[in-house]
Amino acid sequence: MFPPANDDRPRRLRRPEDFAGERGGFAPWCGPAAVATAAGLDYATACRLLGLVSPLRYPPGAEIVTAWWRDLLAALGLAGVRAEARPVEGRPTLCQAVRQGLPEGWWLARVTDHFCLVETARGGVARVYDNRLHAAPLSARAHGRRRVTHLAALPAPPGAE
Q1: Distance CA 133, CA 33 (A)
Q2: Cα(20)–Cα(161) distance, integer angstroms
Q3: CB 36, CB 130: distance < 8 Å
């Protein structure tokens, strides 16, 4: 339904500065940025997808400051990205969830008041991608102390290596 916005350019993972450039220099909000990164879309298209999912919560032309988990999953579905929700046991921090064996791959995470993508690899190594971070090693400063409330397994985003 919505082709990736960067189809005519060399493939690379979308960065926060890409989204800020599309927004006149303003930082993007985390919900639309997570959808845009996971689907390889521009920020405006991610916002339109959220608006299609719930026109009352995301009216056309309004800034999307707060997003709902189920709406992000539905928007990804409209973009053709399969997100498999996984249960979260207890109230682990993001660092604990990774150390406790979050399988290798790409994850959409809702952590305390925030959405981000997490790429996990062998040995508990993880990188965080969100509206301000690009491939930041998971640490206390990179959302590691925030509590995980929701997780969904994702395919690798367009441009991820």
Answers
A1: 11
A2: 23
A3: no
Q: What is the largest CA-CA distance in the chain?
A: 44
End-to-end CA, the chain? 24
DSSP conformational letter for 28: P
Sign of CA dihedral 143, 77, 40, 30: negative
**Residue 72 phi, psi (nearest 5):** -65, -45
Structure tokens of 82? 């399969």
C-alpha–C-alpha distance, residues 6 and 156, integer Å: 16
Grouped pLDDT means (10 residues each) for the chain, 161 residues: 48 89 94 97 97 97 96 98 96 95 96 97 92 96 96 96 68
According to the model, what pLDDT value does residue 92 have?
Answer: 97
Q: Is the distance from CB of 38 to CB of 116 less than 8 angstroms? A: no
Q: In what order do the strands lie in the sheet with 105-111?
A: 84-86, 148-154, 105-111, 114-120, 126-129, 136-137
